[in-house]
Write a structure and sequence with these properties.
CATH superfamily of the largest domain: Cation efflux protein transmembrane domain
Order of helices and strands: HHHHHHHEEHE
CATH topology of the largest domain: Alpha-lytic protease prodomain-like
Largest sheet: 3 strands, mixed
Distance between the termini: 42 Å
Oligomer: single chain
Number of domains: 2
Number of strands: 3
Strand content: 5-15%
Structural class: mainly alpha
Length: 292
Amino acid sequence: MPADLSPGIRSAQFGLFVNACLAIIKILAGVLGNSYALIADGIESTADIFSSTIVWSGLRIASRDPDPEYPFGYTKAETLATAMVSLMLLAAAVAISIEAVREIVTPHHTPAPFTLAVLVGVVLIKEVLFRKVLAVGASVGSEAVRADAWHHRSDAITSLAAFLGISIAIWGGPGWEPADDWAALVAALVIARNGLHLLRPAIAGLMDRSAEPEIRTRIHEIASAVPDVRAVEKVIVRRAGMVYFADLHVHADPAMPLRDAHVVSGKVKSAIKAAIPSVRGVLVHMEPFETN
């Protein structure tokens, strides 16, 4: 693999533990403190539990070596995990929105002041967790780990929205109780936005969208610098999870023996893989160089 996935797996495991603890705390505090925004926040944390589990499973599968049944490897399991986490974010946003609207039109008590202290702690914990997991995702090049990090950020946002809503409800007094529920609705919109933001690149990865122009240009430059290569064209690169597969046409002297042309193609493959470790497979089409 181009990178050790164990840091990403450990971050998912730790996130699983933290989310389980926070979900219990927030739901209990929301029920006892008459705050639906806090209950909605707890529901979002419950979704985080499943998302961390999905990311953990996806990375474990993605780390497997290629085999006869899956000769290109299992790396797309990481992209699939990203898509599933994104869909869970969208589902959580819809569920919270429906319940928030119901609570807005239903009279209820003002939230208890102690719920604010719970939310302050949650926001701090989740923001720290977001930053750490995002850094891990960048280090291992995993979109699934990044998605998990943004799920933590979404939880911090919902907690912040709940804090503001509860503060307004407590400060405003009678008649301002729905501020708590409006906060939950705003948080749901933020969650939905994050879900869509993560879903788009996941779908692109599952559909074998072309890799970013920078890596295609880099592969072209590396291949062109190999001795006996006269020209390089039709560089096609796709991303599969955390690795890339490249397909390119390399032109060489038409009089070159087939054995020598084969050696040149091997040098091109080796040069690309050595310079870009995340490139797992390189398919080189050798062609005669034509001047006219």
